[in-house]
Amino acid sequence: MNTVLQDFRFGLRMLTKNPGFTAVAIITLALGIGANTAIFSVVNAVLLSPLPFAQPNQLVSLQQRVKDQPDSGVSYPNLFDWRAQNKVFSHITAYHGNDFTLTGTGDAVHLPGEIVTWDLFELLGIHPLLGRGFLPQEEKAGSHVVVLSYSLWRSRFKSNPGVLEHPITLNGKVYTVVGIMPAGFQFPISAAPPAFWTTCAVDAENNPPITPHRGWRINSVIARLKPGVTLTGAEADLNVIQARLAKQYPADNSNSQTVDMHPELQDLVQNVRLGLLILLGAVGCVLLIACANVANLLLSRSATRSKEIAIRAALGAGRRRVIRQLLTESFLLSLCGTALGLLIAVWGTAFLLQFAPVSLPRGHEIGIDGRVLIFAIALAFVTAIIFGVVPAFRVSKPDLVESLKEGGRGSADASRHHRLRAVLVAAETAVALVLLAGAGLLIASYVALAGVQPGFNSQGVLTFTFQLPDNRYTGAQKINFCDQFLARLRAAPGVRSASAIDPLPDSSDTWTVNFQIQGHPVPFAQEPVAGLAIPEPGYFHAMGIPILRGREFSETDTTTAPPVVVISKAFADRYFPNQDPLGKHIQLGPLAMGPRPWREIVGVVGDVHDRGLATETHPMYYGPDAQLQAPSLTFVVRSAGNPRALVGTIRRLMASMDRNIPIYNVETMNEYLSASVVQLRFNTLMLGIFAALALALAAVGLYGVISYSVAQRTHEFGIRVALGAQQGTILKMILREGVVLVLAGVGIGLAGALGLTRLMESLLYGVKPTDPATFVIVSLVLIAVALIASYIPARRATKVDPMVALRCE
After folding, report:
1. How far apart are CA 677 and CA 685, in angstroms?
2. Taking residues 155-181, what's their average pLDDT?
3. pLDDT of 267-325, one tens digit each?
4. What pLDDT, on the 0 to 100 scale, is given for residue 488?
5. In this predicted model, what pLDDT tens digit does every residue of 637-681 receive, in sequence order?
6. C-alpha to C-alpha distance for 282 and 694, rounded to whole angstroms
7. What is the C-alpha separation between 227 and 277, in angstroms, rounded?
8. What is the DSSP code (8-state) at residue 219?
9. What percent of the chain is helix, strand and coil (3-state, nearest 5)?
10. Closest by Cα among 92, 679, 667 to 361
11. Are 91 and 223 contacting, i.e. CB atoms less than 8 angstroms apart?
12. 447-469 confidence digits (pLDDT tens)
């Protein structure tokens, strides 16, 4: 222990004796360790930490596999049959989100709620803080009970425990509060935190009720495996049940005979896993470059310590003793770098959260916890070994005769160290090129995606939503209210046009509904499918969607008028090729949940990206709201100026008509569209930052090698100048040395990038993972930076005074 303490004290003296070297090494390590710790804090919270529920490894997500509908949910009747017939689950629970309006506790407020089956909290193993969860009989129509989130209980009810068993009003109906969930509880995790939970009795009493319809697949499903049951066995058991249901109810299940089953955590993070792992790999490469730079610094410093090491060896210090001393100094550097790196990680994590997508699962759990601290400490030891071992072994075996000469330059050792440092710089360059190539591909993808035309004019458009409660507004009253609201809105100052639709294009809520074409009958299970949207009259004009043929909807397309639809160009091209679709008739699928009248096609409109800018346009058809009655409408208002300036006018207009109807989801269309690119923007920004950091570190490493080479060859340059060598000749000679190192790294890096960037293929849009233009550009950027880094010491070499250089010898 005394020897160890002696090594630490001596190491500290040596580091404080060289403050410039120490500061550069610590800052270099801190940047690499801090960046790694910040990214690991995200990976830890999102990918590695178990879900905050009881025995989370038993939780699985279930989904009906439906033809042409990759994201299909589960219907209530199928869910209830699964629940009754399975032998592998202790609980199967359905859930889906809905919007509610809370009144009677001050101003009316919009709240996101979750509709669930009764056993959700039992399945998760989470008990309410106060009160109870739901009871089985509370799934039936007529039962109005609600469990509040902790945040809603605090903000709206002032943490009053007396709210239990008392009524509150949601969407105009009275609900009884039966429980308060603990602080921090959130389910589902992938969505915005719900304000409360209520049972599927809400769906059971809709008019018409949706719970009896097997074709109404609106639910996400989570289940808990019984102890000892494997995922494979459970999937096989459930597929037998679903195949039986497909035979028993062929109208709704013949195209859905199997079930997809995944661990709940895997299902939760499937859309972000690859991006986060690539970022973790990228920041790991940055740390490797940082370690290579510090190793270069240690090798440079060894030239000044060669006599010290030789004296220690001459006095009897063994090689192991010298190596231990040098590694101790490396560990001290690494520990100091880790301490500073943790401060950088705290700032970096906050920076990450500012730009992270709102949809990032478990984003509220991201932070520096015990596991992250252990990771940082482990990095300290690993990095110390990475950058310390090779220099320590190199330096610990000096040439005693050459090193102890008073004027000896140690040319042999210097030459070996220079070759090793050159290899390290080439490796840094290769790693930097891989990161630059990845960042370049993401930037090209982002530019391509940002240039996609959504199919409508998003400039100057404001969007917002409100919902009319069923108990106060009948279907006809809802239509009349919206008509009056739109008429007043269109007459408001600054409004050029206004309309509404459900759902908005570029939305994850797009409905996929089957249909029949008159004259081409097919069995129900084989009916084609297309996206359905329900607009108000004037919608296509307000959004700038071109009318290609026929007309759009008018005020005369009411419930008493002949049923009509408008189709998109993609719909016409696919289902009416080389035909005039106007006047043809189609029949909508089970959304109507009643008679399916034939609807005349009265117009063809331009295609829009209905499922995100990164997806292809799909066939769409539109039915007028007056005939189909959308559950809730999102309004679009085109402004003559800044659309945000209309928010106050819209709120005052709504208050004048019904002050108990809150307006929510207020945003411009450009803000709304930005959600389509937020994940790509986050990945691009993060990888771009790491690539820039890697490029800077590689340039510093190259600069250090060339500077050291120039310093070692001062005598040579003095002789060359004395013999008549021109400055340009010396400049080219040194630049050639730097370019050779970089070209070697570029060659290795291109080979690595061609293989590794293929892993990013699913993250890219409009560009191939082996895009030649990207690889050429990043290679030229790297070479240009290398030339700049080499030019500075090369320019200094041309200024050598021959007399000074020869005299110092």
Report:
1. 12
2. 92
3. 888 888 888 899 899 999 898 888 888 887 777 766 556 666 666 666 556 667 667 77
4. 94
5. 999 889 999 999 999 999 999 988 899 989 999 888 887 788 888
6. 9
7. 31
8. B
9. 55, 15, 30
10. 679
11. yes
12. 888 888 888 999 999 999 988 88
> Would you tell me how many other CB atoms lie within 10 Å of the CB of residue 162?
8
Q: For residue 629, which of 482, 522, 766 has the smallest C-alpha distance?
A: 482
Q: Annotate 684-696 with DSSP letters as a single string.
A: HHHHHHHHHHHHH
Tokens of 628: 């189909």
What Cα–Cα distance (Å) separates residue 324 from each residue in 318, 411, 645?
10, 25, 69
Which residue type is seen at 242? Q
Nearest CA to 322 out of 336, 306, 337 is that of 306
Q: Is the peptide bond before 188 cis (omega within 30 degrees of 0)?
A: yes
Provide Rg for the chain, Cα atoms: 34
Of 204-208, 315-319, 567-571, 581-585, which gets the smallest average pLDDT? 315-319
624 with 557: CB under 8 angstroms?
A: yes
pTM, two decimals, is 0.80
Give me 401's structure tokens.
């005769």
Number of helices (H) and strands (E), helices first, in the chain?
25, 21
CA 290 to chain centre: 27
Distance separating alpha carbons of residues 120 and 129, to the nearest angstrom = 15
Ramachandran bin of 104, using left for φ above 0, alpha for ψ from -120 to 50, beta for the remaining angles: left
Q: How far does CA 195 lie from the centroid of its chain? A: 24
Distance CA 385, CA 400 (A): 26
AA identity, residue 398 = P
Token pair listed for 30:
């801190």
Running DSSP on this structure, what letter comes out for residue 136?
G
- Calpha distance 720→802 (Å, rounded): 8
For 357-494, strand residue ranges (E) read 461-466
With b meaning 16 or more CB within 10 Å and e meaning fewer, what string describes 689-713? bbbebbbbbbbbbbbbbbbbbbebb
Whether the Cβ atoms of residue 633 and residue 625 lie closer than 8 Å to each other: yes
Residue type, 592: A
Strands 529-535 and 620-622, bridge-based pairing:
parallel
CA 687 to CA 203: how far, in whole Å? Answer: 45
Contact call for residues 500 and 463 (beta carbons, < 8 A): no
The per-residue pLDDT for 638 is: 95
Closest among 153, 78, 151, 86 to 117, alpha carbons compared: 78
Count of positions (residues) in the chain:
809
Pairing verdict, β 585-588 and 173-180:
unpaired
Q: What residue ranges in 763-803 does DSSP mark as E strands?
A: none
Question: Rounded CA gap, 349 and 367, in Å?
Answer: 7
- Provide the β-strand partners of residue 259: 64
Q: How far apart, in whole angstroms, are the C-alpha atoms of residue 244 and residue 430?
A: 57
State which H helix or E strand residue 419 sits in.
helix 411-450
**Cα separation values, 791 from 133, 428, 449, 450, 506, Å:** 72, 19, 39, 38, 51
Q: Does position 594 have pLDDT exceeding 60, yes or no?
A: no
Of 690, 248, 613, the closest CA to residue 436 belongs to 690
Angle at 519 between CA 514 and CA 521, to 5 degrees: 45
Are 667 and 647 within 8 A, CB to CB? no
Map tokens 């340039």 to a residue. Answer: 699
Q: Which amino acid is at 36?
A: N
Alpha helices in 645-764 (DSSP H): 647-657, 669-674, 678-712, 714-722, 727-756
SS3 assignment, position 772: helix
Q: Which of 440, 428, 391 is nearest to 413 (CA)?
A: 391
